[in-house]
Amino acid sequence: MQSRLPQPPQRKFCAAWLTLATLMIAVLTFAARAEEPESLSPVVTIGVVADNEPYTFFEGRNPAGFSIDVLREVASNSNLVFDFRAGSWPDIYAAFLRGDLDAIDGISWRPDRAEKVLFSEPYHYREIYLMHDSARPTPTIEALDDLQGLRVGMVEDIFYRTEFADAGISLTTYDSLTSVVRALAFGWIDIAVGPKLTMEYLANQAGFRFLELLGPAPLQQYSGEDFRIGVLTDNLNLFNQIQAGLNAVPEEKLQHLLQRWQEFGGLTGSAGTELALSSQQRQYLASLGPVRIGFMDDYAPFSFTDGGRVRGLSVDIMNRLVDLTGLQAIPVSGQWDELIPMLKNGDIDVMANMSHRPERESFAHFTSPYHIIPNVIFTRDESLNYRNLEDLKHYRVGLGAGIYYEETLRQLLSNGTLLSFHSQQPMFQALASGDVDVVIGALHSGNYWIRQLGISGTRIAGELQLPGFSGEDLRFGVRPALAPLADILNQALTSITPTEQQVIETRWLGASNQPSLNTAELVHWTDTESLWLEQRNREIRICADPDWMPLEGVRDGKHTGLAADVLELFSQRGNLRFRLVPTSNWQEAIAAAKDRRCDMFPMAMRTPERSVYLDFTSPYLEVPNVVIGRIEAPFIQRLNELEGGRVGIVEGYAFAELLRKRNPSLQLVTVESEQEGLRKLQNRELIGYVTTLATASYYMQSMGLADLKVIGRVPADWSLAIGTRNDEPTLHGIMQKLVLSLTPAERTQLESTWRNLRIEERVDYTRFWQILSLGLLATALLVYWNRKLGRLNRELAEANTALSRLSVTDNLTGLGNRTYFDREFSNSFQWCLRHQTGFAVAMVDADHFKKINDNWGHEAGDRCLESLANTMREHFRRDTDRLARFGGEEFVIFASYQDADDIKARLNRFREEVATRRCDTCKDKGIDLTVSIGLALGFPTPEHTSAEYLRLADQALYTAKRNGRNRLEVIPAGQTSGPDEAEHPKA
Length: 987
Known about the structure:
Layout (H helix, E strand, L loop, with lengths): L8 H26 L8 E7 L7 E3 L2 E3 L1 H13 L2 E7 L1 H10 L4 E5 L9 E3 L4 E10 L18 E4 L5 H6 L4 E4 L2 H9 L5 E5 H10 L5 E6 L7 E9 L3 H12 L3 H13 L15 H10 L2 E6 L1 E2 L3 E4 L2 E3 L1 H13 L3 E6 L1 H10 L4 E5 L10 E2 L4 E3 L1 E5 L17 E4 L5 H7 L5 E4 L2 H10 L4 E5 H11 L5 E5 L8 E7 L4 H13 L2 H12 L17 H9 L3 E4 L4 E2 L3 E4 L2 E3 L1 H13 L2 E4 L5 H9 L5 E5 L9 E3 L4 E3 L1 E6 L15 E5 L3 H9 L4 E5 L2 H9 L5 E5 H10 L5 E6 L4 E8 L3 H12 L3 H13 L9 H8 L2 H32 L10 H18 L2 E9 L2 H8 L1 H18 L6 E6 L2 E8 L2 H17 L14 E8 L7 H17 L5 E5 L15
Parallel strand pairs: 1-4, 1-5, 8-9, 8-10, 13-17, 13-18, 22-23, 22-24, 27-31, 36-37, 36-38, 44-45
Antiparallel strand pairs: 2-3, 5-12, 6-12, 7-10, 7-11, 7-12, 14-15, 15-16, 18-26, 19-26, 20-26, 21-24, 21-25, 28-29, 29-30, 32-40, 33-40, 34-40, 35-38, 35-39, 41-43, 41-44, 42-43
């Protein structure tokens, strides 16, 4: 074995140098790699124009916009990362030419630029368009001369301004396109000129759904602006990467992105944030019980009372939140100065039309805003041009009492010139009568009252803009005791899809809520429209649903139903003819429209899918959307109660598309026709069928389907309009004019027509003659059959009587339900009016009932309500006494009387017995229960209404609860004092 000898020092030295050299080479190699040219890095700096909505802008630190979305698609396809650098166009273009930026967005090709810049293919053409107010429609504009006599607005110093000025057009210029769009909404100009996408985006973001594009601006040189990506000529590799990435973006994707920004502000139209409530939140909602929602009853179009119902944009938003969360909501309507004290005292739980102010945080938790309204200056003074509050110093100014900016205005204006009103109608009546010179109010609400009251000569003098106030922010305010509910509502608001928000806003803020043309003579055609009609021999081809009566149908080859009546009116008004294209069902009609075999649908609802091939006029008819079930099926509050079962709807109907997106867990089954759907429901193949109230009533009657009934309401109505082929914009303009020509009386008549349609019974005598010819045997059989039929008819009559009774009876208490109340209340009032006898309405509410449910459970609460109803029946047995469960723990008693003291004494005896009778809950101990009662009574006159009595009784009830509960409070009908000054009988 050899021994290892020590190595010489020289060898150790050489080895050390070799190791050091290896390390140095490695370091140098790493350094060389680190110093590779930056041009090979995937990060590319690109210049974008700041504040260029909706193309390029910043939300905080994050870039957003249509162009940003396109650039992100390009980056994804080309394996690049864009570093966005924002600035004004002159700044970023100069930086790009200096080489400080690798690329630039939104650059248009020009010969002088092509020497230094490589241009991508255009990904968008920014077209210059005209926009008008559909409530004040203007004729089609084909040349600049057609704008003579119109007020035209555009951005100052815009590059196409000279073309308009040289043509002698009267121009008004503004500092921004936002100001131009608002000027059009306020009626200061007739036509707005600007980029198509930007104007639509700004109008939709501001809620100006009544502003519509009129058509391209009649410009030659500046009719469009191409959007491209530019790279300097010395960076060919980067240019090729970007162009390849742009080529890989499908045209459908570009159109989808464009629609997102055009209609939905950059959001996806069909997808909101999914509502994912925690288990604690769901338990909280389950234990919450009914929630009282306060709505102002004179704040149209956001909330107002119409025919005893609260309607409006705010109501539709809340209905959607109820649908999403399962919340039980009871609407309470009133004036602002009535509702706010009720919120503070806990008599209502949520206020729907409320703006955030720091001083209100002590009694309300606020959601995010669901709509922001501009506040404007309404006046009849032609000389007033509002710039700031100094301009109002010498005017008498009216505004709503308690409005969030009232205190600020009182500090800036002397109290002598500022008059507050407790409701909207008297405020605008004061403007009409000259008692005030100016009214400050929300744009849409003010326009509504000006139309309702017919105040001529009213104009908007300016927009109220105060530091810290961007507009009237509509939110839901929740009382602090229900703070978790505010968070739940806020989450639900984010789950409302942009499509749903757009449908709601268009319904209440769109052209259908703007003034209509008043007479048929006002409908006239432009030269373009006349030429279009003459080329087609004034004939328009229509497709229709053959089986959608009474709204629309085809009988013996002829168009019939309400839609046919509308077309007959339009035919006379516009000197037109409508020719029916025959189809066997609705699906064939849709296919014919897609193939352009017909020009329009006379009655259709806008959906995203149909908007691909149709344009829609303003809606001219609203029809309730309902769910039909078998006679034994329970009533439903929400559609999700039908989950797990098959629900039918006609294939191709608008709500089939909308329900699939809104209620994806619903098992929808499509059928070919209304009759097929109802038959399948009758045969138990379906548990529910979605249709309109009008068509359901018609076919159930005509088909003799007595074993079906309405079991629920879909939280959205059919908004029916005319759908025209979207490759014929002239046709859309023609039909829009005709729809706008419908007067309010004609619209009302259309609605009443479908409600009052009846089916004529026809007797077929053929079988009679056949039976007669059979002789004596047939006669004997007929006698036998008649006897059997008589028995069946008696049984059917008994069943119908029982069914009728059940349909108006509350399942729990056996008292009348809301349907019973709606039927009997007005009848009782009219009877008292005719017989000149007293009419009394008492609202009865179980005190602290929520605590009973919370502490003892809902079963015990139900027992208490049954006991309360039994006591009520014992005390009110007279023929003219009417009892109904109004909702939750609230009941209503209405009756005629001769002696007011007698009705008060009966109510007090009833109240005292409720307090002494303990509820039997099948437990060791009963539950103590008391009631508060609000009574309105008086002798009706023609000036009174039944709704007025109910409102006064409701006010008296809240007074009773505010004064300690377990008491009776009385307000005589016709009294002008508030509830606190009403009569207070000893409790």
